[in-house]
Design a protein that fits this description.
The complex is a heterodimer.
Chain A lengths: L5 H25 L4 H6 L1 H11 L14 E4 L5 H10 L39 H14 L6 E6 L6 H12 L5 E7 L8 H4 L5 H7 L3 E6 L3 H13 L5 E6 L22 H10 L5
Parallel strand pairs in A: 1-2, 2-3, 3-5, 4-5
Helix pairs in contact in A: 1-3, 1-4, 1-10, 3-4, 5-6
Chain B lengths: L1 E3 H15 L3 E5 L3 H4 L2 H6 L4 E3 L4 H12 L4 E7 H4 L4 H9 L6 E5 L17 H6 L5 E3 L4 H13 L4 E4 L4 E3 L14 E4 L4 E5 L2 H14 L5 E5 L2 E3 L3 H11 L2 E8 L4 H11 L6 E6 L9 H7 L4 H15 L1
Parallel strand pairs in B: 2-3, 2-4, 4-5, 5-7, 6-7, 10-11, 10-13, 13-14
Antiparallel strand pairs in B: 1-8, 6-12, 9-11
Helix pairs in contact in B: 1-8, 4-6, 9-13
The chains are: A alpha/beta, B alpha/beta.
């Protein structure tokens, strides 16, 4: 397994820095959206879209393209920013987020180029990804499917229905990632619904379980490579992240799950992220 | 001849699977009951038993459809339209995905299992979802058509299927069309617009009332969404009174759909609604349940008599 070069890692980290600023600006612009979970999942989505996924606008209908389901659909702004970088969406489109007559809905929809599955209601994304993985296996395709889940989402029972069924179907072409930022809307995940042994739960359902720092590009890359090479059952990466990552006053705060920054807060956040206002 | 609707459905599904390799079938541990198991036996590699997990099953079908598969999802109507609803709404319908939902055991056809297993709300639920197409076959020939239609139509389709045995109504080579209903018995005094089992009950009622000189037209409204507006307006105009008849709550199903058309057109005529009168039901032999809850031939006949009195 070849690790990412230092240069490529630096490039991806720079993309993440810029994406964070752009996403905060978009959420600020419409004064609506979910900054906390968009920032925590930044490295996961950026590494997948900008490095690992075999997807491009030119091959949007290619049967053998990789698929990604953003199960935690409220992180849509970070998904859209990644799709802009890949050329699926116009460069200036993020400013239309959540606006009337705009393509960029508050939560992902498959009428948006590059989006494979509507998401937003939590709990059912992993099942849809499972369906894609079954279909690709039936077609003898080598394409892979990625499901990006939130940790609060694990409260939903359907997640565990899919956790039970995906190993039954031997879906080693499926990798689930849990953006484990340990904070949900009303408080910490421990307060709202204690997760207890998160790795043990997935392992008991029959998954290959990996764990890494989910805001570390190199660590994530290693985990994705391991997942890709594990045969027989699907893999899940428990990615330890920080909600609101990169902005000191947002980090680890449930209050920033679904709240837009004010003018002053945006300016401070951009300054911290080393950007230009 | 008479055939069990679920048997016809399962058999046709397997025939279609032979011709079209993209058809895949999912069931939630009821394949012996829904008869999707007939397909499962013929094509085990394209049959997925999802266990008792309806939400997971529908969402998995949503994913399969994006790979070019044509998934048929099967379980009891009462569970498909409730436990399977979130993925039906947010993925299948919002995404306009090519997923087919087979709601087995509609109405009270799972008679002895009681109120929890009777499906009296599914048409209201499915009809209110944008992008959904809703078909209710009424015999073997229409079930055959409906199943084949679902496999060819691009987009979400909900088939309301019965556990029960229905007499044959149509010739084997009869033509059906989405958005159309069929006059299966002509008459001048009143029109009964029915679907599924109640088409047969309406014909029975019409035959009885014919002896009293009442001429009853019976329409099989097998396409609930889209619905045959033209036929509804024609019947209202020509017979001046309407009775709707369905094995469903009177709210939200066929009766509501027919009334919407009449109201939109400003063409309202006296209308009676034969169906479950907004109540939960109970366990018992199917025939006795149909009688007790007023959805048999006597129930339809009462509806006809009421509407004719109101017209006078």
């Amino acid at each position: 397994m070849m690790p990412l070069t230092k240069e490529r890692t630096a490039e991806l980290n720079e993309l993440c820095r810029r994406f964070r600023i752009d996403v905060l600006k978009a959420v600020h612009g419409i004064q609506s959206g979910h900054p906390g979970g968009s920032l925590s999942v930044c490295e996961i989505l950026t590494l997948l879209y900008q490095e690992l996924l075999n997807v491009s606008p030119e091959k949007a209908d290619d049967n053998d393209r990789d698929r990604l389901v953003l199960c935690k659909g409220h992180a849509a702004p970070m998904l859209y920013r990644n799709l802009i970088e890949k050329g699926f969406l116009p460069k200036d489109s993020l400013g239309t987020l959540r606006r009337i007559d705009s393509l960029l809905q508050g939560h992902p929809s498959n009428h948006i180029p590059g989006v494979e599955m509507p998401s937003g209601p939590l709990g059912i994304g992993l099942s849809a990804a499972q369906g894609m993985a079954i279909g690709l296996k039936l077609n003898n395709s080598t394409a892979r499917v990625y499901a990006v889940l939130g940790d609060g989402e694990l409260d939903e029972g359907t997640v565990w229905e899919a956790a039970m069924s995906a190993p039954k179907f031997g879906l080693d072409n499926l990798t689930a990632v849990v953006d484990y930022n340990k904070v949900q809307l009303d408080g910490t995940t421990n307060e709202i619904m204690p997760m207890r042994d998160i790795e043990g739960k997935w392992r008991a359902f029959g998954w290959n379980v990996l764990r890494c720092d989910g805001n570390d590009i190199q660590a994530l890359y290693g985990a994705f490579e391991k997942a890709k090479n594990f045969k027989g059952v699907p893999s899940v990466i428990i990615a330890d992240t920080v909600k609101g990552k990169g902005v000191s006053f947002m980090e680890g705060k449930s209050g920033w799950h679904g709240k837009a920054p004010s003018d002053e807060e945006l300016a401070k956040a951009i300054e911290e992220l080393g950007g230009e206002n | 001849m008479a055939k069990a609707i679920r048997e016809v459905y399962g058999t046709v599904l397997a025939e279609l699977g032979e011709k079209n390799k993209n058809i895949v079938v999912l069931d939630a541990d009821l394949s012996g009951s829904t008869k999707s198991g007939i397909f499962g036996k013929a094509f085990p590699e394209r049959f997925f038993n999802m266990g008792i997990a309806e939400s997971n099953m529908v969402a998995t079908a949503a994913g399969l459809s994006t790979i070019g598969k044509i998934p048929f999802v099967n379980t009891f109507t009462a569970f498909l339209s409730t436990l399977g609803l979130i993925a039906t709404r947010a993925q299948v319908c919002y995404g306009n995905l090519n997923v087919k939902l087979g709601g087995a055991y509609c109405g009270m056809s799972d008679a002895f299992d009681g109120a929890t297993h009777h499906a009296l709300e599914d048409m209201a639920i499915m009809r209110s979802l944008a992008n959904m197409t809703l078909v209710v076959p009424s015999d073997a020939a229409s079930t055959r058509w409906a199943t084949q239609f679902a496999s060819e139509h691009k987009g979400p389709v909900y088939l309301r299927l019965s556990r029960d045995v229905y007499p044959d109504l149509y010739a084997e080579d009869a033509k059906f069309e989405l958005g159309k209903g069929a006059i299966v018995r002509d008459g001048n005094d009143v029109t009964v617009i029915a679907c599924g089992l109640l088409v047969h009950k309406a014909i029975e009622a019409a035959e009885k009332l014919a002896q009293d000189g009442i001429s009853v037209r019976v329409v099989d409204m097998y396409s609930i969404k889209p619905i045959d507006k033209e036929l509804i307006l024609k019947c209202a105009n020509e017979t001046g009174a309407i009775v709707t008849a369905e094995e469903h709550n009177i709210y939200g199903g066929l009766g509501s759909a027919v009334s919407e058309v009449l109201a939109w057109a400003g063409a309202g005529v006296p209308t009676e609604f034969v169906g479950i009168q907004d109540t939960f039901t109970e366990s018992g032999p199917y025939k006795q349940l149909l009688a007790k809850y007023g959805v048999d031939a006597d129930g339809v006949a009462k509806g006809i008599e009421k509407v004719l009195k109101r017209r006078k």
